[in-house]
Amino acid sequence: MILPKDKKIVVVGAGCFGVSTAYHLLQRGYTDVSILDRSTTLPASDAASNDFNRTDIELVVRSSYSDKFYTELAREAISSWKDREKWGDTYHESGVLVLGLTNASSGGTYIDDAYRNDIALGAKIDSLGNGDAIRAVFPSGARACTNPSVFNEHRFAYINRDGGWANAAQGVSRLLHHVIALKGEIFLGKTVKKLLRQNGKTTGVECSDGTVFEADLVIIATGSWTPSAFPDLDLGRICLATGQCVAMVQLSEKEGDDYRDCPVVLNFNSGFYVFPPNEKNIVKMAIHCAGYTHFNEVNGSISTPRTVASDPVDGLRIPKSNLQDLRAHFRNVYPDLAEKPFVATRLCWYNDTPDEDWVIGKHPMDDGVILATGDSGHAYKFLPIIGRLVADLVEDKLNQKLVAKFAVDREVANAGPSRSGQAAPLDLKELYNPEDLL
Hints:
The chain is an alpha/beta fold. It has twelve helices and 22 strands. The protein has helices spanning 16-27, 68-81, 84-87, 110-120, 131-135, 148-153, 168-181, 226-229, 253-259, 320-333, 386-394, 400-405, and strands at 9-12, 33-36, 58-61, 91-92, 96-100, 125-128, 156-160, 164-167, 185-187, 192-198, 201-207, 212-214, 217-220, 240-250, 264-267, 272-274, 282-287, 292-293, 342-352, 359-363, 366-373, 424-425. It comes from Agrocybe chaxingu.
């Protein structure tokens, strides 16, 4: 049954999924949409869209996917990002340099399929056939990829000019303003402790401070906190909170100017990616991999994010071995910058699904609840339009193939294509010491 436009909708979580969902519902004429978030400020200080000093985290905006659905959707999102009236300078079209080793004998790899999808959909692609061609995509003042082994390792490379990066917190903040302009309500400092039910159906939520919000529909968009915040929903089969290692270096003003116009570099082989310097001349890098899980005494069997909010003393530290890996990969891309000290690190927490498809679906045991989560590290670039998919589901308009693709109880036949290995438990004894940053 389609929900009437005047019914109460409560969205739990003010991140990418939550804010975009509220925006699209309000645009469609829903008149009673509220967002609840545990944080007292938005974006939350430990959300995936923020970093150590509330400077915007940069996130890759790319259309290079092995799944054509995401390529098409990403190109639509990129078109929306270019609306300066709506997004200001949130999006920076620096281009994305894609590196990776082809494996034609096995029928192709992720990068092969991504390249074909980009080409088929008309992306502005330049294939790069040697090391000189790779280096030529960087500005003259930036010394990059000078080691001959870089191209020997990555015998296939291309730059997608239709892509770049976005200031994550800025994008969420701007969309929040649009939600408020559309008469959406936002309640901060509201940690939902349980779902309220009558006759097996959710009728609202109760917060840890005792506040109750009644609702005709609750949309849970709590990102990597979803499995631990709602253990009764039994999401362990489809959702897993994992931490991904991130590090940053500080450039001088001259270095920032020299490297400002570099593309995002994305190595599909290793998962390493690095951004051009932001307005504060900070360069951020990370490795897209299986990541780490974290289990605590409260939710012993459910991985729970460990952040600066839960561990103020050392919640931003990462394992020493990852710090070394990041520096080695950074050296291959920017040798003149690679010996600079790391000025900050963090674990960026994702809500991973086994197949890397999102979770956008009604809970199979409770049609008063919709889950909008399972980012798997690749949802933010779709911020302008991802809420449309959730709104379509609310209105029973979502394509049935997508209903099956994103279902909470779907059967997962294949592991996700972009990351290999298994998430490892985070060993706190392995975290780096301050001198390791140098």
